[in-house]
């Protein structure tokens, strides 16, 4: 504690014990709350290159990373061929090494991974030839390995879409219908996880238009969609987006305060912190698009943006110690894990990082 109005941290919570002038008090929702992340590197994924677009989640208490793609023989600017995988890796709590355990139903990547019940969902994704409608519930039972149970297919194939679980619904927004799509899908689908026989509902799409590699999150019963990009005649040429939206069941869409800068493909979904914050960790801001020499890429931004859902404001929440995009953010073992990803265009990483999330509470002089 360095000053009288600074607090003690609690993991991902709102209630912070604070000492002021020798007496303690609890910060309420009217006090200032600033998210704080501390990062620890854990065991790397056992692959020479690493993967982008992998699925990730927790099943049977273990961290699971599956699928994704890389360039195993040469970088893309050297004529390398992108390869998709069906490998499944598992890291048990407290273990020092990953092990390979089973395979995906099909080699794929760049879909959605969302926690649900005793496992996680993998939704859509694709390979070099096609994108997929398939939805799977991934679980593990002691000694029997990873299991994939089919859930209702999406209404259309999608990859690079955004989504989140909100209460007992899973939402999917945007994405690309085929690997060659030159237009982002402007769709919003919802599946009732307590009544899956009814299938996916088609809801009002985002008024901001189609997008891919956006980020979604949830606070209460509200879905949030941040940034992303859309093809401008081709996927190679993109419009970089800073708009933000919330979807409210029963009343529809609302436009929010814009992001301070474009955020494309950060570890997803957005990280919840406290009762009102969603955090975007890094992402591509488009500042290095069009480099004549790809080897001169400096890596993606590391800054963390914090969105306050109650106040509709953005703030800076420090920096991550890594530069990773097109990867998954997984809640695990009291924190959030980033499972590999792309550290610069065409170059993967095997690094795995775990964030411990706290909320720093300060006595507020404002009346909001």
Question: What Rg, in angstroms, do the CA atoms define?
Answer: 20 Å
The major beta sheet can be summarized as: 4 strands, antiparallel
Secondary-structure element series:
EEEEEEEEEEEEEEEEEEEEEEEEEEEEEE
Arithmetic mean of pLDDT: 89
User: What would you give as the CATH superfamily?
Assistant: Kelch-type beta propeller
Unreliable parts: 1-31, 363-368
Count the helices. How many? 0
Structural class of the secondary elements? mainly beta
Kindly report the oligomeric state of this protein. single chain
What is the CATH topology? Neuraminidase
Q: Distance between the terminal alpha carbons, to the nearest Å? A: 25 Å
Strand content: over 45%
* Fraction of helical residues: under 10%
Whole-number tally of structural domains? 1
Q: At CATH's second level, what is the architecture?
A: 6 Propeller
Number of DSSP E strands:
30
**Order of strands across the main sheet:** 3-30-29-28
Shape: globular
CATH class: Mainly Beta
